[in-house]
Amino acid sequence: MKVTLYYFSGTGNTQLICNSMKEEFKKANYSVNLIPIENAKPNLLPQADIYGIAFPIAIHTTYPFVRRFIEALPLNEAHSIFALSTMAGTRTGLFNYFLNLQKKRNFQILGLKNIRMPNNYFPKQIIVEENEKRIERGIESAEKFAQDIITREIFKYKKDFLSRLFNPVGNSKWLWTLIKKMYNFKIIEDKCQICQICIKECPTKNFELIENQVLRKNNCELCLRCLALCPNNAIQVNKKSYVIYKRNREQLMANFKEKVILTSSVIDYEHR
Fold first, then answer.
1. Model confidence at 68, in pLDDT bands (50, 70, 90)?
2. Phi-psi category of 241—alpha, beta or left, where left has phi over 0 and alpha has psi -120 to 50?
3. Where are the alpha helices (DSSP H) in the chain?
4. What SS3 state is found at 210?
5. Do 163 and 190 belong to one domain?
6. d(CA 71, CA 75)
7. Boundaries of each 4Fe-4S ferredoxin-type domain copy (predicted)?
8. Do residue 144 and residue 201 come from a single domain?
């Protein structure tokens, strides 16, 4: 069995969960292809038996660029999918979103899952012990979710009125425009080492290099990838510096370095 799992991870939570699910699938001799959403073309679906979609929750939904990607996927009655979200809170519009999409596309849903993970959205403090417990519980939940998909455990949906109420609001353009105005991102020049990681890794291409200076554009959707990956904490939000939980940052940096190595290998091969 082949699984293609599309994912976006802003601060590392979703990536940890996807890696755990991949290992669980491999135990059942499933082959798994993890594809970052920001690097994928939604109209080019690779051949697979199962398709997965994973992302962080933001405002009871997810980031607009993630939703645009999901809605551009050519899913139909021939496809079986599962979806999962990582979140800091307790409520999300994940179920309603995919069930509504299913009505339009008629694909089969193998499972939908919300997984609580550490809060990386401008935390006032980081409590390591509490975060570690959340991560371990999250990984256990992800492994169980993978097992349920493998054994075709019947998916059950519990209606949640508040999630149904918040989902359309969270998906509205005006709300995201308002939220972007509330958070003022600033690059601290004397800390910025022009490593260009933010330029390469921002999913909305919100950074550019002009005259040896990294500048922000107006494409930000507050995924916090730049804060999570900046090795020098050179990015401030509302005049405050934030530190992403160390374990998550290490995961993201390892993935970034792996992508750099793969890209460099392709470039070297193409120029031989």
1. very high
2. beta
3. 13-27, 64-72, 94-105, 128-150, 161-170, 173-182, 197-201, 225-229, 246-270
4. strand
5. no
6. 9
7. 183-212, 214-240
8. no
